[in-house]
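Note to self: user wants both folds in one dump. Writing first protein now.
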Amino acid sequence: MKIFLGSLIGIILTNIFNRLSIANKLNNYRKLILKYNEEIALPKSTAYISDFDKTKFYVLNYYSIVFEKNNFNGKLQRTYDTMPMFNSEIYKSIPSEYLFRVFTVKNDYSKFIDIIYSIDYLKENSPLSVSTEFNVQIKEHISYKNLKPEETTEHFKNCSFLEENTDLYLSKIKNYAKRADSLKTELNEINSNLRGNSALWLLKYIFN
């Protein structure tokens, strides 16, 4: 009987220890997600949208900037944040068996997965890359038309390619900025649901 009780107590203590250990890990992952969201993901999403405002201005006024040499009284500022820390690697470093259990509100896990894909998507389509891509398209058009330097200004005065390319990239910019704005909304929703007293979260994870 004593051996049985000793074994039972050992099993109970082991179970309590395991639950406490897992709850502590979940709580630490929760705090990691919150910290990254608040200090990096949200500020960088805001900077992303701001940088695309610069790209939009550049694309809209390309002819005046490049061919008329108009600097718009200093409004043209195309210095972009390269955002090396704006990526999903921190999220992906969390083991999947724990990541699912971090979230206690319905649909937060699927929303978080969407956040991961959104960040990857926006990182691949940064304001700098879009601006560079727009310039490359124009240069390729000049090369295709075999235009001499002195011919380019006159050519682009009535160039349908420039107009069509401008419309195309304005549409891209609108979509990327919209995606970044949606990302900010999702990040704020996740943060709101993950905030709270650490001890209370620990208890929640223990008994969840």
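First done. Writing the second protein, which came from a different request thread.
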Amino acid sequence: MAVDGIEYPSLERAAKALRLPPHILSLRLSCPDFPNYQRKWVSNEVEYDHLSGRPASRQNTPIMVDGVNYPSIKAAAEKLDIKYEVVRYRLKSPNYPTYHRKDEVKLPKPLQSPNNQCLVPVIVDGVEYPSMREAERALGLPPNVIYNRVKSPSHPNYHRKGEAKEPARRKSGTSKAVIVDGVEYFSLNHAATVLRIASTRIRDRADSPRFPNYQWKKDSRYER
């Protein structure tokens, strides 16, 4: 494989050299947003599957460019006098809706947040991702979910790298603070979101003397 023109003998070696997690590197290799990340075995005549390394089953599938039919990517590239890689990139990219495989309904480009905020590194549950889009791909989430959760104070475990996110303001009389392992959460839902434990289980543990590390803030077990 090659990144920015530099060849690496394997994905693992490239990940180590670039200081990227292997799954992030694999995502970039298959993502049209990173044309500088390429598998070494991709040639101008044969398109290979990025995971198995075997020839893709659709390599000779007819395609359409600006409403004109072509028997293959290679034929389109020769007729249009552009590089094979350019045609293949445009087939994958939502930025070129007129480039698509025959009988394919190309999905529209996902909505993006203003000011290219999707490109800002984000932290989700303590794991860093290079961008919101890559976090969504890695976690299997629909477009804009990460962006909305990063903005929402209800998801303190979703935030931009280097950002000190303030928790949601507690409405008086509507929630009760709970302390788990010495960490205070302003409500059951807040604790459940951060700890990934059902709020009912947290409530039951806070009510039970068998779990002294789960306490209501006003609980006599916590007060000295």
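Dump finished. Worth passing along: The mean pLDDT is 76.
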